[in-house]
Each structure stands twice: as C-alpha cells, then as structure tokens.
Write a structure and sequence with these properties.
By secondary structure, the chain is α+β, with helices and mostly antiparallel strands. Helix content is 30%, strand content 29%. It has 11 helices and 16 strands. α5 links the parallel β10 and β11. It is globular.
C-alpha cells in the first residue's frame, strides 16, 4: 500500500474549498470515516464484470446492534449483506484493492472519497462541513405490509383459528398467516391475466381445510372486486361439510365445495385458473392435465410427495449419488417438478418455479406458477433427458398419450 505524508492543503474550484487529506494509508482513512457519523458510502467504478456494479453501504439497527448493510447491485438484482464494523473495513479495503475505482463517503461532519487509478495509485479527498443533524438509523427489521393486515378482523381467519375477533394473529398461527399472505401475493402478480369483464371460474383441487381457498375468494371478490366462481374439491366428506357451512355463514354465494377426486372430476368446459396445493404424487399430474385440457389461463401448483420418479429413475452416470436413498428422493422430487414445468411450457405456458412458505409438509416448498401465452416450446431436449433417466411421468402420458414429439425443434 502506498504511504502518503500527512498534510492538508486547500484546493479552490471557484465555489468551495476542498481539502486533500493526505493520510498515511487507505486503511487509516477508512478507520476514520467508518464510524457512528457515517450516513452513506458508495463503491462504484467496477473494473471486473463478475463483481457487482455498485455497492451502497448504510448503517442499520439489527436486534439492538448497529451494523452496516451493503446493498450490491448485480444486473437487475440487489443483494443485501450485513457487516460488523471490523468486517466492513476489511470488505471495503479488499474492494478498493480488487476491482473498484471509487469510494464516496457522506458523513455528519465530513464527506470524502478515494479514487484508484489503473496503476493502483490512491487519491484521497476530504471536505469538512458543518455538522449535519443526526440521521435516524433505520431498523433492518421493517414491518412487512401484508395483503391481509393484522388488526383488521377477517371472519374466515377468525373461524379457522388464525386471528382473534379483535384482529390479532395468534402466535401459534403466525406461520399460517404468512403463508396465506404469500399465496395472495402470487395471485396479485397475475391479476392482469384475469378478465374483469366476465365471471372467472377457479377450481382448487385438494382444498383441504381451505385456508387458502377462503383467502383467495375474500381477496379476489371482497378486496379486488372480481366476479369469481370458486370451486373447492377434496376427498374428505367432513372437511367439505365444514367448509360449505362456513362459506354459507359468510354469505360467500360463489364459493362451493364438493367431495371427489381430481382424476374423475367433470362438469366444467372452461376454467380460468386451477389451484392445486399438496395434491399428493400423481394427483398433481391429473390436476395439471385438467388445467391444460381446460386451457386455463393461470395454474398455481404446490406439489408434494413426488414418489413416481423415485421408483423409476436410473442412470449409470448418476449411480454414485443415486445409491443414497435420501439424495435419490430429493433429486427425484426436484426433477419431477422440473419435468412438469417443461411439459407445461410445451403446451404454451410461461412457467416460474418459486419458493413458497409451507407449514403443512416441509418448512419450504416449491410453487409452480404457469401463465398461458400460447407460445409452445419444444420437448426435444426434455425427451432426451427423460429417456436418459428412464423416466415417464404420468403428466407426460396424459399430455402426450402417443409419446412426446421429439422431432420438433426449438
């Protein structure tokens, strides 16, 4: 590190005096400016493509402790990392050595900057100014705004044991409350795909206790004003009876529940949205096939218990890993959902696989969200992969009873 003699000399740019603070080292400069007086620091001028283009650093309060949050911009993503003071000093020092050409600092008593030339020479500038008013340090744990906010009583949440009559969320049900709101966020994203000019038909396969079915009806009809007709289907007669009773008590005239299985469900010619949460194993495939058959505009699916592929997967190249039962099971589940997503894309859907908070089976699950675009994708590569894995899922057989058209090119 280049060492510089201490001195201060003014430089006039015609408007204000800027002091060049010649400090021994960059480390010493950082030690001085990274303090409780820091307002904002910005690393920029990145010379390496693999690094974030820009990093903004500000103090935050986390559990009563002052930390420094670095928000790194990489493409369209922003990644947040929290550092203690010593860790931040090391991080910033390494950044200035390893790819960033500029650091700008704003503080309560002074502003400063470091410029790094292509040859590694550092120029440090400091401008003293009258002390600014202390900036309130934001809490890192900001209160999240939920679609169904706490404090506003919702009848079905009260009766389902999630909320008190005063609108307070029961501690034991807070994870369920978050799950419901997260599910509604997924729906909110696709609202432009649903018509406001006519009645929207939605089928919820395997609705169970119907936390999310009631939430969907309340959100779309009561809060957003959509004309919806929602049907919940489940195998358990007692569950259907209870849900029907609750829907009637709330006056939800267009929310109905029926007992039955997915594969044998008939009676509808057109469905706009299909929801299938926790439809076990092949039941998810039958639900997805029904959605494609109805030309549904939106599909929301949280699969579970994906056993089918686990019983048939075979691949010599993967055999060293597949011999471990738990790894084979997890790989099979992930591959199953990946194959399902590709099959939906081949039928003209744009598909995302998203992380979904789920307290019923595992702490986190995957949600398949598919939106009809009409742009069909080739299954050539998918066919090659499933052949290599000795895999032929039920969904593939339902969508392509004559076999996948592997000859089609992208």
């Amino acid at each position: 590190m280049q060492r510089i003699l201490r001195q201060r000399r003014p430089f006039c740019d015609g408007r204000k005096k800027v002091y060049f603070m010649m400090i021994k080292t960059v480390e010493e400069f950082l030690e001085e400016v990274i303090s409780e007086d820091l307002i904002l620091a910005v690393l920029s001028g990145c010379r390496k493509k693999e690094l974030p283009s820009r990093v903004r650093i500000r103090p935050v309060e986390l559990k009563g402790e002052i930390l420094y949050q670095a928000s790194a911009t990489q493409g369209t993503k922003v990644i947040h990392t929290n550092y203690g003071r010593d860790a931040l000093l090391e991080y910033m020092n390494q950044c200035l050595k390893g790819g960033y050409s500029q650091l700008q600092i704003q503080g309560r008593r002074m502003d400063g900057s470091i410029l790094v030339s292509k040859k590694g020479k550092h120029t440090i500038k400091v401008k003293q100014h009258p002390e600014k008013k202390a900036v309130k340090i934001m809490s890192h744990n900001r209160v999240k705004k939920y679609i169904l906010p706490e404090g506003r009583p919702v009848p079905f949440l009260i009766d389902l044991g999630v909320m008190s009559p005063e609108g307070k969320i029961h501690a034991a049900s807070f994870d369920k409350y978050k799950q419901i709101n997260r599910f509604l966020e997924f729906i909110e994203d696709i609202l432009p795909k649903l018509s406001r000019e006519r009645e929207i038909t939605i089928v919820d396969f395997g609705c169970g206790k119907s936390y999310l079915t009631f939430a969907m009806y309340y959100f779309l009809r009561e809060l957003r004003g959509y004309d919806v007709n929602i049907i919940g289907l489940d195998l358990k007669a007692d569950v259907i009876e209870n849900c029907s009773r609750l829907a009637e008590s709330y006056g939800y005239e267009k929310l109905r529940f029926y007992q039955g299985d997915i594969a044998g469900f008939e009676g509808l010619e057109k469905v706009d949205m299909v929801v299938t949460l926790h439809a076990c194993d092949k039941a998810t495939d039958y639900a997805l096939a029904k959605a494609v058959q109805w030309n549904a505009q939106v599909i929301l699916s949280v699969p579970c218990c994906q056993h089918e592929l686990n019983g048939m997967i075979k691949n010599d190249l993967l055999s060293p890993v597949l011999k471990y039962g738990i790894l084979k099971e997890r790989m099979s589940a992930l591959l199953t959902d990946g194959i399902r997503a590709n099959l939906l894309e081949s039928k003209g859907y744009s598909v995302q696989i998203l992380e979904f908070i789920d307290m019923e089976h595992t702490p986190k699950n995957l949600l398949i969200r598919a939106v009809k675009t009409g742009k069909e994708k080739s299954v050539k590569k998918l066919g090659e992969m499933t052949e290599a894995l000795h895999a032929e899922l039920t969904l593939e057989k339902l969508l392509y009873p004559q076999g996948m058209p592997a000859e089609k090119e992208v």
